[in-house]
Amino acid sequence: MIALPALCVCVILGTLPLLFLPALPAEGIAITGALLACIGCRWLPGRMKFTAFITLFFCWAVLSARELVWPFSSLLAGNQRVEAVVIRTDGATEHQVAINKLNNRWIFPSVGVMLRGSYLPEQACAGQRMRMTLRLRPVHGQLNEGGFDNQRYALAQRLPLTGRIIDAQIISGDCSLRARYIASVSASLTSYVWRDVILALGFGERLTLGPEVKILLRNTGTAHLMAISGLHIGLAGSLGWLLARLLQLFLPAHRIGYRFPLLMLLVSASVYTWLAGSNPPAVRTLVAIFIWSLLRLSGRNWNAWQVWLCCVAGILFIEPTAILSESLWLSAFAVAALIFWYQWMPFTLKPVRSWLRFLLELAHLQVGITLLLMPIQLVLFHGISLTSLAANLVAVPVITFIAVPLILTGMAINLTGWQWAEQGIWRLTDTLLQALFKFLRWLPEGWLDVDERYRWLALTPWLCIVLWRLRFHFFSPLLAVAAIALLAAPLWCVQKKPDWSLHMLDVGHGLAVVIERNGRAMLYDTGNGWPGGDSGQQIIIPWLRWHNLQPDGVILSHEHLDHRGGLESVLRVWPKLMVRSALGWARHQPCWRGETWRWEGLHFTAHWPQAGAVQAGNNGSCVVKIDDGRNSVLLTGDIEAPAEWAMLKNYRQALRSEVLVVPHHGSRTSSSDTLLSMVDGKAALASVSRYNAWRLPSVKVTRRYARHGYRWHDTAQSGQITVIFSPEGWQIKGLREQILPRWYHQWFGAPADNR
């Protein structure tokens, strides 16, 4: 018989491959493997049982992942007639629904879908049941090294599909009890400044939080307080436990037992999870609380690590694809860090005054969590907050012990109809939050972006604690120094890099190219812009910082937003950057035909537009050739056929290049036969967005490139595209297929569904 902690280790080890598999095994292989593993679990001797159990749970994880991607093969053919329940909505054009019926057949489990850009027949609210005709698409996200992985996030949230509404009729217009409750509380909070923060803390409704608040929370390392996390659900459960213990004071001794408070804890935690919208992180926390309760009821004395193993394994057994969730990794890592901290660095000071002891214990906790969470913070967020220790020393006790209890009290009073008492609670909470956020604004801006070289160095606090407690610093100081130096090796070791590289970033519909050499970077265009954000802020700046690249300049092809959208954000961070363009704008150096310059040993030549010509729009694009003496790249912006012919008139031989950046995203108005013939390249790179409204790239254009012998690569299919140039030659790698192939990064759906 295998022990429970060992079985939990088998669950975790069996599920971990979902993070790294490039493709999922076939369903038949997984079922056959599971059957064979079951036989092995029963009959194999000794340690071979562990292998059988790991194989069994691996097959279980694969089947769960295949169930998650099942809609990609079953719900994408034409319009789908479904019945669905509204889960969340912004009240306008964005709705999350769960499909329960397809063509009058029940689906279990229900399929989650995000519907964007579509209005419902009337004001929508969570809980409404509707009959819909939907045009569904598999989830697809922009994919760049070190960037936010939207595709993985969507699958971790069990939202594999996106789509738009063709038609919708309401079957049941009743809002859910939770939606009506939130509306009631929200109406009571209308006049308060911190209404959105109160709703976020009470119900997990963070959609209405403004960008200023989100940036402040990130910079101070307090964003975790706005999520309905284990801390909040645990607090709600503790209040239920405390209420049960108070009730037991009035009972005779023989009626008092430990099970009733535990039951009340579970009920309170369950109710609060429901109020929080039963989102996946909250449900996982509730599962962990139930597992902890069952371990308590077992009568055995489980240590902290065994409880941690059982909780993580229980979550992964119920939902194996949760292994993709960054929130699960962050929560599990945080709990492991706390266990490690209190076992290896316990609080031993015993001051006389209790209030001083409380403050010192709180500081001890925050120091530990700040130091030990650095590795996971760097991996997930690519930076750390230097003010998080001071911010959390104040914010954690204020939010946890004052604000959240006040909010829960106000939510309870809302049910009674005592408006005078409810308004008093909300006024007090609003004043408290105003003081807290005033303090957070007073702190210096503490967010520090860190590049990938520091990932291993972030483990230093863990290593130092182990070395200190095991007294390695005393018995073998050289070993301690060597271990820390090894973690810092990426900072001082000079890694052999290719001669130079070109990176076409995946910015959706737009263009952003980074030329990299000797740790420096030159940009060609800066992607798109939209209300409230741009590609520079969201993609280019984080990418450059994560790869430790210092930009020296920007070449701007033309003035259209999808090519210059991120320019202002980039210039805010690096205001002294040289900018070249043919626009004649202030501080812009010219990019006209005949202009040449050198950068890091590479030769740049501008071939269009003509000097002094004021030509706006696509045909005014600055066309630049980059040459290292052996290999060359031609960057073309959005140039169209008339300008292509004019450019080629006197510059036929000068434009020959191995790599051609496809003009105008593969539009049929560009990429003439004459251009492709004169460039005589081997590879074509196109920056396009999947599901774009213009159906780019054009089928005729891709066939034209194939006819001229070009290998076609585009960001919709490959994500970020990297071309590596070296003395031995050059090669092209796509992030989705070669650099980071993962089953959850695949191109799901029909190969030509964008046309």
Automatic annotation (TrEMBL):
Listed InterPro entries: ComA-like_MBL, ComEC_N, Competence_ComEC/Rec2, Competence_DNA_uptake, DUF4131, Metallo-B-lactamas, RibonucZ/Hydroxyglut_hydro
Transmembrane domains' residue ranges: 50-69, 223-244, 256-275, 305-323, 329-347, 359-384, 390-413, 472-494
Main location, first listed in the record: membrane
Bilayer disposition of the protein: Multi-pass membrane protein
One Gene Ontology term from the biological process aspect of the record: establishment of competence for transformation
SMART domains: Lactamase_B
Domain of life: Bacteria
Entry's localization field: Cell membrane
Name of the protein in question: Competence protein ComEC
Naturally occurring in which organism (per UniProt): Franconibacter pulveris
